[in-house]
Each structure stands twice: as structure tokens, then as C-alpha cells.
């Protein structure tokens, strides 16, 4: 198993305001003494986590939202011949683990309904089903020790990848298996100001020809370098050793990172973009970002190709100076002028689908 | 002669957390004891809730830092949308959390400080009874158990740490160890970083430790000695500092 998966992405955005600071202007950072545009790691992660792509890829592992768990338990138990009284008590106890039960009104059928929709993970459902089987076989109510049905590590790939921190219940904390750096432009960039006016359509201009509204909006365009590192071992551990789900989670994350963009000011700028270049690295070596390639800002007409070349030269230079940084590499390029990777060692070039296959654990 | 494990830290963004409560999350200009213990602990695979392991780390390792560039300060304005806490509602994914009616979402603000383009050398030495050898620590840094980062998870190292074990007369000699050029090539990518001509040295232990002289050394208590990682408790430790001309400075 390759311990670390590192991804280096180059994504070009037209004028946009993807991630704003407290003044509503695009975020920036200094690198190599030059000002760059920046998209925070938090903004990127939010984009990926809330993307449809991410949810669809993990369908079946995102659990069920239901109020009716208690009713299901009751039905199952009675079907399997458990005494009415035992079935009622068991259903109440089990559903009670997931949420407070709704009080039943006079003359109303007992449904053991939970007051609110609760999220029940797939392995939590599995635990409930197992408990039902045991109770039916032994025709008894569950004991307190058997009611520990809530899992500390839910199979939600989202939480496994990006972690969870609950100050109130630290035992439910999960350390993120994915590390994401702030994305920065490979070149120096300034935030520009768009001075805009809006006319009032009902103002005939008889008295006043002025605009009804004037404003200013900051924006910037740039080629961004994004770096992320997935700790596969930790991801698998967070997912209770479910290798298959880990592979799905990695594929979903990579596809989201390549294809989705932060949604800031999309109505004004329509700045959605796909990554134009992806370098993926697998290995057990100490991970490092390749931002060093852009310490001196890229300037020139052929920015995209220059940026790719610098990235590959940098990876090679690190290899030469410190030993190989990865066991194998994979390149996906959508830059028309790009021909082949300038990296020695085990390097393959291909499509995004082939990259996803490359990332799957063999 | 003392053996030291020396490594280099650089990232476009780093954050060396100081005492912080609430919405302002400041950064020091160089890594403190808790940050360095955390880094080495992550490489070794010692978890935050492993009390015995944390204790062994804390009691076995000592550090000195040479700040070649403090970098520039960047304040990141950070908002987080959160659903109201309801005891009986559990959200399993971020999408789940954000799918409640928009008006019900709350926003948490924080200001997080980072150092842009900072560059530091770190020397680690063992205290009596240490649970690891320097060679083991070096190996762990080269093939870490967990991802390494410079203070915050969003700050991955941007140069291999390049750990080496050296035997030196003084701590200063160890901290002045030469590393390959920052970008791995011979041309000076480092120029873009503009390392300071005057380096700041900070260390623990004894006042004479750096190079045998106590001249121009200042010291005070720094509250960054991790006492309990679970409860996030820190105690004081005495830190010595001196600013000197950097022979590597250009």
C-alpha cells in the first residue's frame, strides 16, 4: 500500500472572486516577496465536501435520515415472534439511542417515532439489525451494554477525509486523513477593482440621468497551484478498514478537486474551471508541496506551459537533491501544448479516469 | 561533542500558534516546543491521546531553533458556517450540515495568523533516558507515520526536511549546518526569500548552551510546554534567545 498520495494541480481562473476577505476582496498572500491571489484551504474543502459529485460517489455510504427506526425495530421483532411487550420495550430502547421519542397522543397508534430526523450510518443500521436477531432468538429486551450502537468512527467518507472536532465529546473526534494547502497563483497578481453602475429602468431621464447605484467589486484572475496530500493509511483506519470505501473516497476527492471550483460570486463572474494539469505521486516518503517551483513568480506569455515545466523541474530537482520523493507518478494534462512529462523514474501520462485507476490500491 | 538531529523548515505558509482563546489565533515568528514536539510526534506516529508517548516525547527531546527568516505576517479572515447545536440532531457530512434552511445557519468568525515564507533550522538533542535514538527520529522524519505540517494542517512543508545527524561542539554549529539549496538546484531560489542577515537563535536548557557565552542572551518563560494534549494544557519553560550575524546570510 502506498502510504501517501500527493496531488499537485494547476487551475486557471478567469476574473473571479472565489474566496473573500473581510472587505469582500479576493484573499492574497505574499510568496517569494511577490503578492499572489489565494484561495484558502477551508474554502477548497468546503467546495469539495458539498459538491454533488462527492455525495453521488459515496452513495450508499452516507447513511439514512429517518424518524422511523423504532417502528422498523418493532415490526422486525414482532415478525420474528417476539412477545408484544418485549418488542415495544426493545423498540423504545433502541430508537432512544438515536434520538428522543415523540410522545404518543391519545388514541394514536404507537409508532416509536423519533422527534426529529436522525442520521443513521450504514454500520449503525447493521449493528441494529444484528441486535434484533439476537433479541428475537433469545426473546428478551436489550441490556444497557448492548445499546452502545452509535459508532465513534462513522463510515462517512467526508468525516474520514476531513476530520471532525467536537470539543464537547472528544471521543468522537476524527483526525483528518487529507491535508490541503492554500491555493496560490504561480505568478504575481494584484486585486483589481471593478467600478460598476446600475441603471434604474423606470427612470426616464427627464430630470436625473444618473445611475441608481454605483459600487466597487474586487476581483482577480490567475493560474493557481493547489496541493493536497492524502494519508491513505489513516483514511483506511478512519473508515474501519474498509479499503473499498477508501478507494471510492479518494476517487471522489480527486475528481472534486479537479472539476469543482469555489462558488464565490459565481453569478457575477461565472468562473468555473477544471484543472488543466495534475501531477499525482504515490509513495511512503515524506510528503512536500512543490510550491517552491513558484517562489520566483512565473512571468511571460506562455504561463501555463511554463508553470507545468517549472513544477516538473522542481520535482526532479528535489529527487536529485534529497532522493526520490515518490515511488510512482501520474500526469494528466489538458494543456494543448504539453507533450510529455519531463520527469525520470516511474511516470505515466493519461486521462483522469486512468489517474483514478492509478490511485486505487492494487 | 554532542549529537544533534538537524532539519530545515520552509513553507509558503506556516503558523506557530501562541496562547489563543476564541476568535484571534495569533502566530509566533518561530516554532515553539509544542510545535516541534508535535512535528516529531507525528513523524513517529504518537497520537495526541497517547499520554505515555506524549510524556516520553516531552521528557526525552530538547530543541534549538535558528530563525533565518521570520517571513511576513498574514492575517486570514476566516468564517465557518455552522448549524445550531441541537442535542438530538446529528449531521454526518458537511453537506448534511449545510442543507438546513439558510436562515438557521450561524457563522463563526476567526482571524488566523500565518507567517509567509519563513525559514527555520531546527536542532534536536536527547535528554537522559530518551526513548528514541536520533537515528530513529531521523528515519521517522524521512518516512513519517502521519502527514507533517508547520503548525497548521493547511501548512505542508514545501521542502523536504532533510534531517541529518551531526556531532558538534556547540548548538550553534549544529544550527548553522549547511543544507542543499532550497529549491534543490544550484541557482539561488533562496534569494527570493531574502533571508535576514541577522539570525535569531532560540533554545532551551542552559544559558551557555548556544556557543559557551551568555553575552547578549535574553530569556523568559514561554508557556508552550505541553502538559496534556487532550486537555490542551501547557506549562512554562525557560527559553533563551540571542540575535547574531548569520554567516550564511547574503
Automatic annotation (TrEMBL), chain A:
Q: Specify the superkingdom.
A: Bacteria
Q: What is this protein called?
A: Type I-E CRISPR-associated protein Cas7/Cse4/CasC
Gene for this chain:
cas7e
Automatic annotation (TrEMBL), chain B:
- Cited Pfam families: Cas_Cas5d (PF09704)
Q: Where exactly are the transmembrane stretches of this chain?
A: none
CDD domains under this entry? Cas5_I-E
Q: Which UniProt keywords apply?
A: Antiviral defense
Q: Does the keyword Amino-acid biosynthesis apply?
A: no
Q: Which residues form the signal peptide?
A: none
Q: Does the keyword Transmembrane apply?
A: no
Domain of life, per lineage: Bacteria
Q: What is this protein's record name?
A: Type I-E CRISPR-associated protein Cas5/CasD
High-level lineage: Bacteria, Pseudomonadati, Pseudomonadota, Gammaproteobacteria, Oceanospirillales
The coding gene here is cas5e
Amino acid at each position: 500500500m502506498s502510504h501517501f498520495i500527493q496531488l499537485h494541480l494547476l487551475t486557471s481562473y478567469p476574473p473571479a472572486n472565489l474566496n473573500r476577505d473581510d472587505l469582500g476582496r479576493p484573499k492574497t498572500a505574499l510568496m517569494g516577496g511577490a503578492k499572489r491571489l489565494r484561495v484558502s484551504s477551508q474554502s477548497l474543502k468546503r467546495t469539495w465536501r458539498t459538491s454533488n459529485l462527492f455525495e453521488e460517489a459515496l452513495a450508499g455510504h452516507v447513511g439514512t435520515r429517518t424518524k422511523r427506526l423504532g417502528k422498523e425495530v418493532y415490526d422486525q421483532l414482532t415478525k420474528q415472534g417476539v412477545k408484544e411487550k418485549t418488542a415495544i420495550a426493545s423498540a423504545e430502547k433502541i430508537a432512544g439511542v438515536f434520538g428522543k421519542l415523540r410522545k404518543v397522543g391519545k388514541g394514536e397508534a404507537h409508532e416509536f417515532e423519533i422527534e426529529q430526523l436522525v442520521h443513521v450510518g450504514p454500520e449503525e443500521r447493521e449493528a441494529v439489525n444484528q441486535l434484533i436477531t439476537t433479541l428475537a432468538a433469545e426473546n428478551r429486551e436489550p441490556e444497557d451494554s448492548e445499546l452502545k450502537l452509535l459508532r465513534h468512527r462513522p463510515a462517512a467518507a467526508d468525516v474520514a477525509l476531513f476530520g471532525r472536532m467536537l470539543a464537547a465529546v472528544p471521543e468522537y473526534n476524527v483526525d483528518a486523513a487529507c491535508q490541503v494547502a492554500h491555493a496560490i497563483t504561480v505568478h504575481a497578481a494584484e486585486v483589481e477593482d471593478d467600478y460598476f453602475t446600475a441603471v434604474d429602468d423606470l427612470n426616464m431621464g427627464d430630470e436625473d440621468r444618473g445611475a441608481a447605484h454605483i459600487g466597487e467589486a474586487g476581483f482577480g484572475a490567475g493560474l493557481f497551484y493547489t496541493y493536497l496530500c492524502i494519508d491513505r493509511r489513516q483514511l483506511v483506519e478512519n473508515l474501519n478498514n474498509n479499503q473499498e470505501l477508501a478507494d471510492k473516497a479518494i476517487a471522489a476527492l480527486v475528481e472534486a478537486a479537479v472539476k469543482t471550483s469555489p462558488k464565490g460570486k459565481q453569478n457575477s463572474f461565472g468562473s468555473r474551471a477544471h484543472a488543466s494539469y495534475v501531477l499525482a505521486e504515490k509513495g511512503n516518503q515524506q510528503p512536500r508541496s512543490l510550491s517552491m517551483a513558484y517562489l520566483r513568480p512565473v512571468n511571460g506569455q506562455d504561463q501555463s506551459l511554463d508553470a507545468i515545466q517549472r513544477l516538473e523541474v522542481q520535482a526532479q530537482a528535489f529527487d536529485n537533491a534529497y532522493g526520490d520523493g515518490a515511488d510512482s507518478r501520474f500526469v494528466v494534462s489538458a494543456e494543448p501544448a504539453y507533450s510529455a512529462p519531463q520527469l525520470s523514474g516511474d511516470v505515466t501520462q493519461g486521462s483522469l479516469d486512468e489517474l483514478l485507476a492509478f490511485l486505487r490500491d492494487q | 561533542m554532542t549529537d544533534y538531529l538537524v532539519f530545515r523548515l520552509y513553507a509558503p505558509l506556516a503558523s506557530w500558534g501562541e496562547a489563543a482563546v476564541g476568535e484571534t489565533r495569533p502566530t509566533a515568528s518561530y516554532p515553539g516546543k509544542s510545535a516541534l514536539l508535535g512535528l516529531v510526534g507525528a513523524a513517529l506516529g504518537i497520537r495526541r491521546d497517547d499520554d505515555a508517548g506524549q510524556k516520553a516525547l516531552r521528557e526525552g527531546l530538547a530543541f534549538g531553533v535558528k530563525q533565518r527568516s521570520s517571513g511576513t505576517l498574514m492575517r486570514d479572515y476566516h468564517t465557518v458556517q455552522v448549524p445550531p447545536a441541537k442535542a438530538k440532531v446529528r449531521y454526518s457530512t458537511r453537506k448534511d450540515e449545510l442543507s438546513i434552511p439558510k436562515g438557521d445557519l450561524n457563522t463563526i468568525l476567526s482571524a488566523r495568523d500565518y507567517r509567509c515564507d519563513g525559514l527555520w533550522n531546527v536542532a534536536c538533542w536527547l535528554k537522559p533516558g530518551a526513548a528514541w535514538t536520533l537515528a530513529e527520529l531521523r528515519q521517522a522524519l524521512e518516512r513519517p507515520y502521519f502527514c507533517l505540517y508547520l503548525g497548521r494542517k493547511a501548512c505542508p512543508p514545501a521542502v523536504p526536511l532533510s534531517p541529518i545527524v551531526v556531532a558538534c561542539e556547540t548548538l550553534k554549529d549544529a544550527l548553522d549546518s549547511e543544507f542543499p539549496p532550497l529549491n534543490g538546484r544550484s541557482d539561488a531560489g533562496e534569494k527570493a526569500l531574502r533571508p535576514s542577515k541577522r539570525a535569531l537563535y532560540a533554545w532551551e536548557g542552559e544559558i551557555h548552551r548556544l556557543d559557551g557565552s551568555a553575552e547578549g542572551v535574553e530569556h523568559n518563560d514561554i508557556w508552550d510546554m505541553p502538559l496534556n494534549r487532550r486537555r490542551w494544557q501547557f506549562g512554562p519553560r525557560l527559553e533563551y534567545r540571542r540575535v547574531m550575524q548569520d554567516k550564511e546570510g547574503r
